[in-house]
Amino acid sequence: MQQSSILLLFLFLMGIALIVFIYIFMSSKRADQGMSNPLKKRFWFFLILTIIMGIFASVTIPKSPYFAFADKTPAKVIHVAAMQFSFFLSEKAIDRDKPSGQKIELPANEVIEFRVTSFDVNHGFAIYDKSNRLITQTQAMPGYVNRLRYKFKEPGEYNILCLEYCGVAHQLMRSSFIVK
Amino acid sequence: MESIKLKKITSVWIIAVLTLFVASIVLGILMRLNQGGVLHQAPITFYSNMTIHGITMIGIWFVAGMAGINYLMERYVKTSYTANLIALILTVSGVLMLWAVTLIGKFHTAWTFLYPLPLRVMWAQWATPTFLVAMSILATGWLIWGISMMTQVLKVYSIPQVFAWQHFKKDPAVKTPPFILISMITLVGVVTCLLVAVLLMALYFAEYFSKGNFVNDALLMKNLTYFFGHTIANEMLYLGLAVIYELFSEVGGKPKWKTTWYVALAWNFTLIFILTAFFHHLYMDFVQPEGFQIAGQIASYLASLPAAAVTVFSVWVAVYRVKIKWTLTNLLFFVGVAGWVIGGFGAVIDATISNNIVLHNTQWVPAHFHTYNILGNVLFSLGFFYWFSIQFTDKRVSEKLSRLILSLLIIGGAGFLLAFYIGGADSIPRRFSNYPAEFTTARPLANIGAVFATVYLIPILILFYNISKRCLKILFSSS
Predict the structure, then answer these.
(1) C-alpha–C-alpha distance, residues A48 and A53, integer Å
(2) What is the pLDDT of residue A35?
(3) How confident is the model at residue A33 (pLDDT cuts 50, 70, 90)?
(4) Shortest CA distance from A41: residue in chain B
(5) Rounded to a whole number, what is the distance in Å from the CA of B273 to chain A's nearest CA?
(6) For chain A, what percent of residues have pLDDT higher than 70?
(7) Which residues face A76 on adjacent strands?
(8) Rounded to 5, what percent of chain A is helix, strand, coil?
(9) What is the band of B20 on the pLDDT scale with cuts at 50, 70, 90?
(10) Chain A CB within 8 Å of residue B220 CB
(11) Do B59 and B138 meet the contact criterion of CB atoms below 8 Å apart?
């Protein structure tokens, strides 16, 4: 799972940083002439860091959600309107004056496009899978429509939570849909 | 040399910051206990507390950095006591208004006050205009302070000299002290983001008073909000770094650090990157132009490179196999740099767009920014506070007590933060007053966080007593 890998990567990097800092701190107790050739070492440190970050950026940027299924035609388009403190989901465009939603069922292994907007303040539109893992998200912003594309592989019920703080009942703002 | 008035006003800043810090930590612990199900606050109380907790923390550590560089700047240029005093008066006024707005008026937009939330009144009618006035007062006071310091520096150093451009050539005639370079680079960023804050407030006022005739654009307002919010939260860290560049070697009994071509280059680049990194707050707004999103990731990565290669490496060179006189001051600085680096890892991971989609607005966010604050920037400023307070007394914190303070800060801080990181990896949302039952780890993690935050509070209280006592003496002494 992506989140577990992220946590492991972070703990690994933290471990390296701790070892380096503790080692350097301890070395000041057996002091002699200090670091030899620091300028050269600094150059290599900088170069290695730049290369690692360059590789990391070039691998991750193409995986950005803006490019996901960009060349595909979605099998279904779901309109989403967020309002304090509920979501409306519909296969038809949602009327701002009389917002209403419907029960949503989506096909598995097909590209789905969510067209997400808000009728009041900023909200989040975050999709959680059956094991309660955040799998994708976008923001619901007044005056704009964010298009989020995703292919659900597992059938089951998916929860939607608001992840952008929107007021006093923010923690209760939720919805769901079924993937068959 | 530092004037008596400057010593006294710096003492007032320190006491005010520490008092508000303790109060805000208590609010934070209450929030975690509420999320843990131990307390049962009404959501409106939780969110009002959350709002003032965030605003206060950002505000106090920003002014702590400003007060620090103002005090040390007097070594190089004459600073304006009047500007410092105006900033103090306006800060106290603004902060009192904000505490009233949130705790009495129940204003609860979170510290990011994303448009149009402040205008959808769900609290006392007076709270929204008072909030906007309070923010304008703070921005005005800090702008006056920042511009005043920049002006005073420019009376002694020319524009190329403050940015150390002459160091790109061999043997420059005028050498720019690193402290001046970093202070100036940071002040440019500070003034820029405060000007954006003024614009943001003007747009809010325009809509508030137009009675529906003028409506702002939500995407523009979000960009402006994060330009201000992200930048000020990062610049306050750099204010702390300016203090480290000035004091780290001095406290350790070593010669002062010098500006070299690579130090100059790194900090000039930092100014550019830090002003564009805020785009990473809008990754999940897919309508934002893709170029900005990619620029956000690249700028976030690049902002960390010069800082790491220059500042962190310089600290390592200054310590590695060098006999150093370790005191509480430089130990706080050293641990703070380590905390800053570790928080930086968490930040860079989150600033990667493909990770952000599963981390955005989860507890990973408070995890990383609390790391480089409570175990980074706060320690930089505490190091300065302690160093300042012992300048005028013979008494020092004993080695044993220093060890205890540092151990509790690290243990308390690490436990508190790990609960957030694990929560982030468990997809637990941030800014929830209570958690739905399906987040099975949310409650225990919140309670663990609260316990470790209490451990962190103990050394803060010790330092609060120790430093404030000395600062009060300075305040009421006649010399």
Answers:
(1) 9
(2) 83
(3) confident
(4) B313
(5) 15
(6) 100
(7) A112
(8) 35, 30, 35
(9) very high
(10) no
(11) yes
DSSP β-ladder status, A156-161 and A146-151:
unpaired
B298 within 8 A of B348, measured Cβ to Cβ: no
Beta carbons of B358 and A135 less than 8 Å apart? yes
Give the β-pairing of A174-179 and A105-106.
parallel
Closest residue in B to A45 (Cα–Cα): B309
CB pairs under 8 A between A and B: 216
Q: Rounded mean pLDDT of chain B? A: 95
pLDDT, residue B148, reads 98
ipTM of model = 0.96
Spatial distance between the Cα atoms of B35 and B359, rounded to a whole number of angstroms: 19
Residue B7: pLDDT over 70 = yes
B285 touches chain A (CB under 8 A): yes
The pair phi, psi for residue B273, each rounded to 5°, is -65, -35
Comparing CB atoms, the residue among B320, B354, B435 nearest residue A24 is: B320
> Is the Cα torsion angle B170, B175, B179, B183 positive or negative in sign?
negative
Dump strand ranges (E) for chain A. 76-83, 86-90, 105-106, 111-118, 123-128, 134-140, 146-151, 156-161, 174-179
Residue B87 scores a pLDDT above 90: yes
Closest chain B CA to residue A147: B286
| Statement: residue B479 has pLDDT above 80 | no
Give me the domains of chain B, ranges plus CATH numbers: 4-476 (1.20.210.10)
Residue A91: how many CB atoms within 10 A of its CB? 12
Structure token pair of residue B405:
């303070």
What is the pLDDT, as a whole number, of residue A34?
Answer: 80
B293 touches A: beta carbon within 8 Å: yes
Over residues A80-89, mean pLDDT:
97
